[in-house]
Amino acid sequence: MRSFENFIEQKLAERQSAGIYRTLKPENLLIDFCSNDYLGFARSSALKEKITTEVNQYPDSMNGSAGSRLLAGNLTYTETLEKVIAAWHNSETGLLFNSGYDANVGLFSSLPQRGDTIILDELIHASVIDGARLSHANRYTFKHNDLQSLEDKLKQAKGNCYVGIESVYSMDGDTPPIKEIIEITERYNAALIVDEAHAVGLYNKGIVVEQGLQDKVFAQIVTFGKALGCHGAIVLGSNKLREYLINFARSFIYTTAASFHQLASVKIAYEFLQGADSEIESLQNNIAAFKQGVQHNPAYPLLVSDSPIQCLVLNSNEKAREVAAALQAAGMDIRPIFSPTVPQGSERIRICLHSYNTIEDIALLTNTINTLLHG
Ligand SMILES: Cc1ncc(COP(=O)(O)O)c(C=O)c1O
C-alpha cells in the first residue's frame, strides 16, 4: 500500500477504535429532536409556495449565478436584499456569504493581521476557529463565558484585538453576559464580533439588537440555515467593513455566488419570520415543557439554557452513544456529541426542540430520558 493510502487507513482505524467514527445517515422517520429547523421554516409548504411565487416574478432569473460576486454573479436583487436585511437588524450594511462557515472564515482570516490578537470563547464554533487559524494573528481562547479569563487574555493582547463570541452557543445552548463582555472589550479597545447563528428568529432580530447593543458591537454574523430554514449568511457591520471584506475575504471573493433561488428563499424567509409569532410561542412552550418534564440528576446535568438547544452531559463517549441509541430505538432522532467536538468529560446528547414538536413528543422524550437516567 502506498504511504498516503496507509495514512488514510490508519487515521480511520484510529477513529473507529476510539468510537468516534463519523458516517453519513440518510433522512429518517424519527421524531425530529436533531435539526436546526427550530421554527419549521425548512419544511413549511406555505413558505415554499411563497418562495415559488417570488421566483416566478422574475422569469428572466437564472438557475445558477454563473460567477463570483465580483465577476458575473452580482445582482441588483442581491444588493437590495443585503440592504433590507441589514436595515432589519438595525445595521449600517451587510455582506452576504454562501454559508455561515464561509462568513466566519472570511471575516476572521482576512481582518486580523500578523501582530494582531484574536481572543475567542473556548466553545466558539469551528468556522471561527478555522478562520482565525488562517490569519497570521496571535490566538487565545478564554474560559467559556468567564469575564476574568477574557480580561486576563485582553491584558496580553498586542496589535488590533478581535474578540469572538456566540450569542447562543451551538453546543451548550447558553447565552454569554454580552453587556459585561462589551464593557470589558471597550475598556481594552477591542473589536467584539458576535455570531448570532442560533439566536436570530428565536430572539427576534438576534440578542444584540434585542438588547439595543448593535452600536457597541463591531460585527455580527447571521446565518440563514437555522431558524430561517434556508441557507447562507450575512456579516453585518459598517460600510468600511463591507468594503474591506469585498476586497480581502477570500471565501467571499473566490467562490460562485448564491443562486437566485437561494436569494429569493432568504428574502421570503425574513418576511415569513415577521408573521411567525405562533411558531415562536409553540417553541417557547415546548422548551418550558421539556425543562419541566426532565428530572434533574447531578450525575448527568442538564446544561443551563433557555434556548431550543438542550444538552444532557453524560461524561463519556460510551454513555452518550448508549443513551442516544436508546432514544433512537424509542423513535426519536437524537444524536450523541462526542469529544473532541466537545471537551473530554462533557460528552453529551444534544436535543434540539422545535415549534412543530407536539406535547406528546416532548412527553415521550422526557419520560424516556427519566427512565434511562433515573429508572
Ligand atoms: C454558531 C455557528 N456559526 C456558524 C455556523 C455555520 O453556519 P452554516 O451552517 O451556514 O455554514 C454554525 C453552524 O453550525 C453555527 O452553529
From TrEMBL:
<keyword id="KW-0032">Aminotransferase</keyword>
<dbReference type="InterPro" id="IPR015424">
    <property type="entry name" value="PyrdxlP-dep_Trfase"/>
</dbReference>
<protein>
    <submittedName>
        <fullName>Pyridoxal phosphate-dependent aminotransferase family protein</fullName>
    </submittedName>
</protein>
<comment type="similarity">
    <text>Belongs to the class-II pyridoxal-phosphate-dependent aminotransferase family. BioF subfamily.</text>
</comment>
<dbReference type="InterPro" id="IPR015421">
    <property type="entry name" value="PyrdxlP-dep_Trfase_major"/>
</dbReference>
<dbReference type="Pfam" id="PF00155">
    <property type="entry name" value="Aminotran_1_2"/>
</dbReference>
<dbReference type="InterPro" id="IPR004839">
    <property type="entry name" value="Aminotransferase_I/II_large"/>
</dbReference>
<dbReference type="InterPro" id="IPR050087">
    <property type="entry name" value="AON_synthase_class-II"/>
</dbReference>
<dbReference type="GO" id="GO:0008483">
    <property type="term" value="F:transaminase activity"/>
</dbReference>
<keyword id="KW-0808">Transferase</keyword>
<keyword id="KW-0663">Pyridoxal phosphate</keyword>
<feature type="domain" description="Aminotransferase class I/classII large">
    <location>
        <begin position="31"/>
        <end position="361"/>
    </location>
</feature>
<dbReference type="InterPro" id="IPR015422">
    <property type="entry name" value="PyrdxlP-dep_Trfase_small"/>
</dbReference>
<comment type="pathway">
    <text>Lipid metabolism.</text>
</comment>
<dbReference type="InterPro" id="IPR001917">
    <property type="entry name" value="Aminotrans_II_pyridoxalP_BS"/>
</dbReference>
